[in-house]
Amino acid sequence: MKKQAFANPEDAAAVGVEVKYNDPDVERVHRVHLNNLENIPLFILSGLFYTASNPNVMVALMLFRIFFVFRILHTVAQLFLHLRMFRSICFFCGLGINVFMLIMALLAFHQF
Known about the structure:
The protein is mainly α.
């Protein structure tokens, strides 16, 4: 609303402005939302499998908290810092936590 940039003509018509496409700030927020929609459901699934494998509670809490911090840092880096390398590090650390939890869950279920 602040930028008067809308994705759909009907949204712009409701406010009474012309459609403005490809505003960099609006596109950046859109990419953040899409990235979170790609990564958070994967974390929820891997976290469910990991907790079903009866892990050490302290390790599980630490992994969950670290993932949360890295997702927040990734969002901040995308929106405000514009540092590609920092954003990549945050993404790959979160991905590493997902992979670790899935591997540990698979190993635990393989023992049954």
